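pinned: reference chain
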Amino acid sequence: MKSQLNPLPNPAIAREYVKAYFDADQSWFPLLDREDFMRQVQSYAHSSNSFLNSVPWYALYTTVLALGCRVVGSKQNPSDRPARFAEAESEAMKYFHNALVVQSELISRRTTLTTVKAFAAMTLYAQHSTTPQCEYKFCSMAVRLSQGMGMHKRASPQWDITPAESEERSRVFWVLYWMDKTISLRMGRPSAIDDGEVSCPLPRTLGISSASFSFYLFAARYARICSQITSLMYSAKALIMPLSELLETAEELEAKLQRWHDDIPEHARLENSTKGQLDSSGTVPHLQALALEYFYHYAICAIHRRFPAQTFWHSKSQNSPDDSATEKMVEKGRKCLEASRSICLLTSNLEVHAYNPSWLLIYYPLSGIITLFTNVVTDPLAPTANTDIALMEVVTGFFGKLEFCTSGGMAFTKTAELSRLARKAIKKARREKGLDHRPGTSRSQGISSVSPQSDILSANTATTDSILRLPQSATDATPGSSWIDCPDWANISIGNGVPDAEGEAGFDMNLESGMQLEHNFGFNGTSPWPGTWNLDLLT
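pinned: its structure tokens
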């Protein structure tokens, strides 16, 4: 096993990496106690014992080095030298590789709190990658091991653990809880934590320098809401829940989310944040304030995006909802779109650094652009269609910067294709309705034949059938025709069951299947599952 390990940095560089970790990642999620961790580092440095004598400690230490290496590597603006991002990632991966090598040893040996911390730290590291498989697996292992140790329970006096140990267990568990519940909502993976079994209190001490604001505590509260969204809106039981109950549940969840958002103090708001770390005045870092806003708007989408699909199902059944229920569902769709627009706007505040998690750099911006794209192609004549495309291009521009800063390591070229296809949809729809003047035709004649329909924003006049409305030519499409007059859409089916051309990926908007775009990503924008998309296919 030792032959597979990469050499560790010299003590001076290692101290720099450890310091960088505690200055950055620890302020987000206080997984470790700084003083205790440094004592262990010094103990191993001045003894004849090898780090490998304690496999859990070795895995934790090398993962901390990898996380800190990313932070140090990102101190230089990657846009000044794009290769810097890739270099920081490559250097960090050398240390993380060591933790991966001893992973099987971690699982097979006796579980300790350090073992749980190691897997939790590995999950934090995996959150920076573009593939979610490792993040989900590391988190699942950490959660299972922690529950095996009873960390999800309130410590009993019979357990004979000190108050400090109890606080440490609480800190670690709630970090894991946030990971598990947000992964579940974001990716549609099953949660490994049953809320009914959790009695572990939130910690009173956080192990961070500033007590004026705790991103960690707000994240933990947010995770509880995420758990309720997943279980009450997307569980098997929720799928057969009466529409009236589902609407009531959504309103209750939105009220809880709004109270959470209102509780964020003024100095932690995005407009009052600072680009650096916590300073003496307690100003919250810009990235943390930005993450809180992303949390809020994404949860709004998660609560309300269920209802356009719900409306579609009812419109296909004999029991269509009454007008009041329809109006409520239209309002839900409007809120989902507004939140998606806010997500796209927030992207302009993002900066590209190697230590930024992928859910911040990739997941949330993609969820916004895909929701807007779906809305435009389903209702290309909506008055908001052109402005939605402009917002989509804000995200496209950010992904262009991301590709530049990573030297092509993260390339989302198909997002630009989405904007182009959306414009094609608008152009085609306007031409068919006579809204675009062409030589040899009378503009007044074309306009007189138009019968405008309300889009999802017009809550007072929308009907059940117009909420998820496709152009008639789309529903009547055949393999040889397309409702958009461009080659790109010739092999794309929009919920009509038309098979794709051999060897090409389709864009399927069927409610029960994931949407895929030419093997780059898939998503469930209108599926009954909470995951907005699946990055397993990301290349």
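why pinned: Residues 163-187 form the longest helix (25 residues). Residues 212-302 form one domain.
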